[in-house]
Amino acid sequence: MTGQTGASLPEGQKNHGHFLDAPKLEPGVTRFWLIRHALVEQNARALLYGAMDVPLCPDSLVAQQPMYEALARRLPQDALWYSSPLSRALQTAETVQTAGYGERAITIEPGILEQELGEWQGLPHQDLPERLTLPAHRFWSTSAVERPPGGESMVDVCARVGATLDRLADRNARRDMVLVSHGGAIRAALSHALRVHADTALHFSIQNLSLTILERHDATWRVVTANELPGI
Q1: For residues 196 and 187, is the Cβ–Cβ distance under 8 A?
Q2: What confidence category does residue 156 fall into, taking pLDDT thresholds of 50, 70 and 90?
Q3: Which chain positions lie within coiled-coil regions (predicted)?
Q4: What is the mean predicted confidence (pLDDT) over 16-34?
Q5: Looking at domain 30-228, what is its CATH homologous superfamily?
Q6: Adjacent-strand bridge partners of 220
Q7: Could you read off the pLDDT of 98-132 as tens digits, one per residue?
Q8: Where are the domains of the chain?
Q9: Cβ-based burial of 21 (10 A; exposed 0-12, middle 13-18, buried ≥19)
């Protein structure tokens, strides 16, 4: 499935009813292509970096060039581009564009920022357990409802990201939008689309450079794909 959109689909290759049967996604649908940023550098991975601005891993930028090229081929050419304010997201977006997509304007969107961890941001992972007031989620550093001092809970992130998606969908109805964001924010987007609690959404795996595609049809959302790894 290429994911490329166009003016029309050939006869016999069209999606019908409420099903997705054709190898291409039909144009004219309000659609989000969410990409998690690339791998950050090794020292940052030892910390709870949350919404800190940490650099990407330079070795991975080279080694994963085929994944950037696959993303460039996968994305629709007429999409609007958005990035989190953090450099790791913006650099990922720019690298996908230079890998064959072509240069496009990228709008900075604070609403798709990663979870703000407040006073816990920058802590080594091993120092976190003694500060928690609730058991951590099996697949996240904190419980979905734990709010770090001066920071956000994942429930807060889901509300923020959900409001951002609705705003962008209203503004750009029937358009494709590429959003380069973060693992927590993309889980929050899935929480919003599926109308499930943040705790449930944290069970999704969202890997670096993975693609998640969401559509909004009036007030109803559809998940087309989640955690799709390009070229794998």
Answers
A1: no
A2: very high
A3: none
A4: 82
A5: Phosphoglycerate mutase-like (3.40.50.1240)
A6: 217
A7: 999 999 999 999 999 999 999 999 999 999 999 99
A8: 30-228
A9: exposed
